[in-house]
Amino acid sequence: MTWVVWRQHRNQAYIAAAALAAFAVLMLVTGLQMASEYRSALGLCAASHSCSNLASTLNLENSAVSAVVTLTVVVPCLLGVFWGGPLVARECETGTSQFAWMQGISRTRWLAVTVGWTMLAAAAWGGAVSALVTWWSSPVNSLNLQNFQPSQFDIQGTVPMGYAVFAVALGIAAGALVRRTLPAMAITVVVFTLVRLLVSEDFRSHFITPVTKTLNFLLHARAILPTGSYWMVSSGLVGPSGPVRSGPLNGGPSLTFDGVPIPVSELPSACRTLLFQTSTKSASGFPSCLAAHGYHAVLSYQPADRYWAFQGIETGIFILLAAILIAVTAIVVRRRDA
Amino acid sequence: MASSNVDPIQTRGLSKRYRRVTALSDASIAVPEGRISALIGPNGAGKTTLLRLLAGLARPTGGEVAVLGSHPSQDSAFLADIGFLAQEIPLYRRFTAKDHIGIGAHLNARWDEASVVQRLATLGIPLGQRVGTLSGGQRAQLALALTLAKRPRLLLLDEPVAALDPLARRQFLAHLSEAVAGGGLTVVLSSHLIADLERICDHLILLAASRVQLCGDIDALLAEHQVLVGPAKDTTAIERDHTLVQAVRTARQATLLIRRNGPVIDPAYEASDVGLEELVLGYMGQPAGPTPKHLSAIGEDK
Amino acid sequence: MISFRIDGRSVVPPYLQIVQQVRQALRMGVLQVGDKLPTVREVVAATAVNPNTVLKAYRDLERDGLVEPRAGLGTFVVGRPSGPPPGTHSRLARSLAQWVRSAHEAGLDDESIESLLRITLRAAAEEETA
What share of chain C in percent tops pLDDT 90? Predict the structure, then answer.
């Protein structure tokens, strides 16, 4: 059976291997260059004690290569569309299922071996691309500390492997259900995109309860801010009557607090005046003024050391979804008329 | 010949309903071992459905079916004994004959590779050419050779010769007949081409309007039927003694296809034997709807 | 060795065509005692008829004592078709001619005679089998 799977899909395997090889060469060449650039920049800034603002002065990435790296986010989806979608659908569409399923091998066994190898190939391929991207990105990661950013998180570590396995399972299941290749491919793209967005936008921040910290303005703010590549889930001001409304107010001046704009008009007027005075003394008086009026800041974030836990959880979710889809496929293929 | 004395195909009240339509209704048939059975019926009569139910590719919605003594399943033990060839002759178009032989060799415990290779050589079908570029006749021959290489005990063929030219058709049927002559093989073959079937088949399953109209040995069925041509008079006497299958009446004359219960002695009628085609057309010409129960049992050994 | 020609359009059933062709070959001397008939497989490969048809024909020939199957070797010719004694034909022909004359006198044309003959033959066959 393995021979049959190989004979049927070897062209796809060759194409995939060629694409992977080309990508690996690109990653190795530009990655090595980037790493040495970063090392020498580190050496230079250490000599001049200016490493704290290295992120704002050093630009490591070549924009074209970065675009290619960013585009690897669609690799799992492509695998789902071109490997998963046709797997069962094409057999049904061309009627070759009536050839394959009338040989001396049970349909379950046929499905198990075919699906097994395809999923394994998807995991290996998705994993290889992701490993290259992860290695290539390590200087950028250390520099920018944005590992939790979806544009980084989704193409590095183990999650791309989970996505690939899920996308292929989705394609196979869609193909078994609709039995036509093109619709199966279309369903794969739509459902895959929706599920990915849903998980990354709505669920990911809740994988582990975020760490919440209250910032008393009387203390030095910097001292208790999280370090490293953390993920700020939410931040804002809390006043005596609850959280202060955040978001830009039409045209009015606003104060940016950890990236979240807070309209100045929402703050007590006594403190507002301090803000617009130019003397250094009154400017530093502003936080004390807020604290005196019962205001404090609340930060809710995922610490940097949870990165691999998050990667593991998300990978697990997608592998679980893939397992469910494969179970559905097995039931459909066994039960429905061929 | 296999030792079992159970018919390779036995069904009782077999039915298949799709959401809206009934594809096969209350089919009770039996095909004895070593026969080549002709499955005949108009388009949409349920021929493909019956073959797919027997092959285990479709599940019945009612009735019982026993194929080679067991219920059609997806087990490798059952599949090993069944050869099925769908109407559209599904093969992998981008693969060569050699690839298909490889697939067969890897998916079947019992595989007579030498027979396929030899058969293809005899027919001059290239091993290394993509199947999609072969002619319809070559594809059909390849598919049959692949199916026979499994050494099945039951072969189910759905309109295999419909698309073939006369020579390819003759070669295909000769190939099939040769395989049956080897022993231990039973065949059910559906087709519209009665002339071909008449030559090669010795058993008949006639379907019309998703029901079995006739099932039995062709010679026995032909012997039981006669065409009477005579004056257009009251036929109640005939109908009392015999079963009237079809009557074509003009003002003066009646042509009656009957199933006899004993000799026809009415001198007013000229009796003649029926051919397979006439018999088939007579039953197909019947108004649709439920047939009298005994009709489906004609020719069955009691 | 002889080969068979099966005419699918003939009213004569295929098995009977085989029987008749073997008998004819024996009468003509094409086949002689000791000759081997083609195997069932060879016949069906050449003519695409049902194997049971060939078996049935060979069984008929065997029953008539013309051929004999030998296990593992094939079917061999062991006898020649026996006709009635030479006088029988002419005696029956004379009485039939007399009957035809009386039929013509009664106003039957040739077609009606043929039809009557067929009916009578069939009835006789049924009486015998009954």
Answer: 31
Residue B204 and residue B221 in contact, taking contact as beta carbons nearer than 8 Å: yes
Q: Does residue A320 sit in the same domain as residue A177? A: yes
Once rounded to an integer, what is the mean pLDDT over residues B230-234? 80
Q: How far apart are CA A27 and CA A8, in angstroms?
A: 30
3-class DSSP state of A93? helix
- Partner residue opposite C50 with nearest CB, options B175, B202, B270: B202
Residue B292's pLDDT is: 44
For the segment A186-195, the average pLDDT, to the nearest whole number, is 97
pLDDT digits (tens, 9 = 90+) for B50-79: 999 999 999 999 999 999 999 998 888 899
Contacts of A104 in chain B (CB under 8 A): 76, 79-80, 107-110, 150
Residues C72 and C90 in one domain: no
Q: What is the DSSP string of A232-297?
A: EEEEEEEETTEEPP-S--TTS-EEEETTEEEEGGGS-HHHHHHHH--SHHHHHHHHHHHHHTT-EE
B93 chain-A contacts, CB cut-off 8 A: 94
**Binning pLDDT at 50, 70 and 90, where does residue A112 land?**
very high
With an 8 Å CB cutoff and a minimum of 3 pairs, decide whether chains B and C touch.
yes
- To probe the interface with A, which of B49, B54, B92, B155 has the most A CB atoms within 10 Å? B92
Q: Tens of pLDDT along B174-188?
A: 989 999 998 889 999
Q: Give the pairing type, strands A260-263 and A254-257.
A: antiparallel
Contact B177 C50 (CB under 8 A): yes
**Which residues form the domain of A76?**
9-44+63-208+306-335
C-alpha A295/C-alpha B5 separation (Å) is 94
State whether C99 and C72 are in the same domain.
no
Query: Does the beta carbon of B1 lie under 8 angstroms from any beta carbon of chain C?
Result: no
Are B79 and A105 a contacting pair at CB < 8 A?
Answer: yes
Which of the listed ranges A59-73, A296-310, B147-161, C73-87 does the model predict with the highest average pLDDT? Answer: B147-161
Chain B segment 7-36 residues within 8 A of C by beta carbon are: 34-36
Chain C residues with CB under 8 Å of B200 CB are: 48-50
Domain enclosing residue C111, as ranges? 86-129
**pTM for the whole thing?**
0.81
